[in-house]
Specification:
With 188 residues, this protein is of the alpha/beta class. It is built from six helices and five strands. It has a five-stranded parallel beta sheet, with helices on one face. Strand 3 (98-102), helix 5 and strand 4 form a beta-alpha-beta unit. It is globular and about 50 Å long. The mean pLDDT is 90.
């Protein structure tokens, strides 16, 4: 969609938004993750699509996931070199009401630091919404095991630097309640 947001593609997108509104969604996520990012004006294209959604939807919250949702250079290897100043450009262009998902210094971050979250928040001009890739187990790096240990490397002090903290669950969703309980306790 970000390669050609006009004509039939845009009309189809608007139809999907209307269908979601008919269901009565509260939250709408526009996800550009895991797509090619080496295109001209990437941040502008993504912001245009998100703003179209924001103007159209009845959802009370809109969150987007950028193409480059982590500092991890693996994203550049797999999806193309990220545009210079991408996060700053995206933050400048996005309406302040739009949340932005962020996975941290790595795709599967071991720990979140205040300094890192401050820097990302400044670039995005808003607190990021953490998309924590633990206890996920659907990719090649994480799929060999069930990840049921308590969360570590997420000190409660980061709470003031994030808009929200979402976790990417394992394929065995009910088992994720075990580590999720430890994350909730760490914020208390």
């Amino acid at each position: 969609l970000y390669r050609d947001f006009s004509g039939p593609a845009k009309a189809s997108f608007l139809d999907k938004l209307r269908a979601l509104d008919e269901v009565g969604i509260d939250d709408l996520a526009i996800l550009f993750d895991d797509t090619r990012g080496d295109v001209p004006d990437l941040a502008a294209r993504e912001a245009e699509i998100v703003h179209t959604a924001l103007e159209t939807t009845h959802a009370s919250r809109v969150v987007m996931c950028p193409t480059y949702y982590s500092d991890d250079r693996m994203l550049d290897v797999v999806f193309g070199k990220r545009p210079a100043g991408y996060l700053d450009d995206l933050g400048r262009r996005l309406d302040p009401r739009v949340g932005v998902y962020w996975t941290g210094e790595e795709i599967c971050t071991r720990e979140f630091s205040v300094g890192h979250l401050e820097r990302v928040g400044e670039a995005l001009r808003r607190k990021p919404t953490l998309w924590d890739n633990y206890p996920v187990n659907d990719g090649p790096r994480m799929s060999r095991f069930l990840h049921l240990r308590a969360f570590t490397g997420r000190p409660s002090v980061i709470g003031q630097y994030v808009a929200a903290h979402a976790i990417n669950p394992a394929l065995q969703a009910h088992l994720c309640l075990i580590p999720a309980a430890s994350l909730a306790a760490s914020y208390r």
